[in-house]
Amino acid sequence: MSKSTPTAAKKRPVVRLILSVLVLLVGGAVFADYWSAKPLGIDPTFVGRAACIDCHQQESELFIGSDHDMAMDLATEETVLGDFNDATFEHDGLVNRLYRDGERFMVHTEGEDGQMQDFEVKYVFGIRPLQNYMVEFDRAEDQPADEVARVQVLRITWDTVKKEWFYLRPPDVPEKLEPDDPLHWTGVAQRWQTMCAECHSTNLQEKFDPKTARYHTTYSEIDVSCEACHGPGSLHVELANNKSIFWDRNYGYGLATLKGEDSHPQIETCAPCHSRRGVLNESFRPGDKYHDFYNLELLQPSTYYDDGQIKDEVYVYGSFIQSKMFHQGVRCTDCHDPHSLKLKHPDNETCTSCHQHAAGKYDVPSHHHHDPGTPGAMCVDCHMPETSYMAIDPRRDHSMRVPRPDLSVKTGTPNSCSGCHVEDRKEKLPQETQDQLHEYANWLLMAEQGNQPVADVIAETDRWCDEACEEWYGEERLTPPHFAETLAAFRSGDAKGVSKMLRLVTQPNENAPEIARATALAELGQAGIREALPKAKELLENESEHPLVRAAAIGVYMNATPKQAIADLVPFAEHPNRLLRTEAVRVLVSSGAYQQLAGSKRTQIEMATQEVHDTLMVAADRGGAHMGWAILLEQQGRYREAIEAYETAIRVEPKSTGPRTNLAALLEGMAAQTQGQQAMEMMLRAEQLRKQELPLLARDAKLAPENAFVQYRYGLALYLSGEFDAALERLKTASELEPSTEVFQTAYELLMDKLQKDALQKQ
Length: 763
Description:
By secondary structure, this protein is α+β, with helices and mostly antiparallel strands. The protein contains 33 helices and 16 strands.
């Protein structure tokens, strides 16, 4: 064994020292690299998809041609799919022409003045199974090129599957739409900024000016691009281009974290555009908490069936949060590719990729009792039934529920078994009726509208399906109690409905999801059930309870005493959650509790009211937003400001009903407290407003003959105009449509009594 030389021995400590220094230097440099970070408070900006493609080519290739990519575009030779080769299309007696004028795509159709005119199609909307076309109005000559003026969506629509034109009618409106109807293609209900823009473009800024009633809308990208889901990308791009070996200690990748253990950030990033909701604040960014920026619509009878199945178009999220999948952490990208939006697996593999328990447990006839390859053997046809919206666009219910024909028998709710098998009994109905039954939703609608033969066939089918399930599954069949039974009982006036609802609101999520419990609370509050207050207080004080439920609990305080509302709700005016803050302030003001506040508490609520104003002004292009603000101002005694807000509501949406009636009542009340010329001017203005409102109310009453409140409101307006006989007819209609609504009955009886006394006095 050789020995080291003395010189070599002397060198070793030096080498070790040098290595140690190098390790320390490298380690220090690495640590310094890690520890250095961008300062807190950076607000990233939008940079566009071009900044993403170099590093994310695979994702970009998947994205190209997706529904997000094709959400909106300029009308060009490449993007327009419809036939504009001098095509003629007729509907409601109108002969429309679709043609080319050089590079422009043109439509000859009825305008907002009722005359046939030529309009240029500036934008296209969507790609499958239909494509909409949009026309720009009110564009000023000096308006910047990057701004968009008012845009209206034509109802003449292209079927991209059948390759033919069709007229996209509003649901349940078979007659021709008049130009003054809000549903007419030039009306507010077909306005891009109001109904579509936020979710079809990236970084949309509506920029509506209530003073001029004009739009100055901008976006960073015309369609749903990378930053719509990942958030503004400037910081991410900057960090990616740094020479650091680490991402930032404070900001990570500089984008929203959508792949963590918690499924909520990803789901709540998708939810804003895939839910039916009100907007509380426009500053939402991917990764933010949904319920701090949006107010999700609950299970309204007009949009959901009693068991929470979709009825109207609700855009998935409200359904999905009812599902066991959601509560077990399943997220959107478990089934859908986030960039192409396509399902990750074909057919039943989308479900069996997770549901692999025992071999052959689900995707076999012993489970679904249908022949393989038929619709009944498809997981989604039983557990995610679909309904067509926009005439030809089928959407699946994402509550992913077990079919419950037994609930259909008990409560009249739909079930996917009957959805197929009603067709087996179709021949029992007259041919004219059969021709209108294109899908299960048509059956349900006709039954709801009073077609008894159709209702009878549905009920017969429900019983048959229930019996079949009992025979198939026997003792293994699961039919647990469902919140549908409680909601149906309460809504039908069942004597035990209130007690059932009070039990429902405190059920655990596995028995009733948050949206169902919030719905129960909201309906108890709307019905004035004071027994709900102790439950509401209990839920409100539970910090772990869902914001939806706590917000509904706040609404119940409309039935509380001012003292109780002040004690329990004033602290919520400063709650971290925006939904709870704004709801607390609204209830405090609307219930009359605010009027009893004094000192610092009154000042606190007055300051918090500004946030309610900001929330309302998210929809500043709607008259209802300004009317809502005017009502709050009036309730606070700020009458001059209320008058201004009512006038703004009229200016912004001159064809809407409500602001004129409310303003007239306010002016009449103020006139009673005023004298002389000023009082006379107020009364004259009020009279003028009521005259202007009357034809608008007549229009609404004609458009909604089955809506009791609309008939009642028109009846009151006729009464105030001195048209007593016509008023009596409308009030009678309202009382017959909703005999359980006391105010309708009382108004009708009081007017009837008055007219009888007047007749006796004349004799």
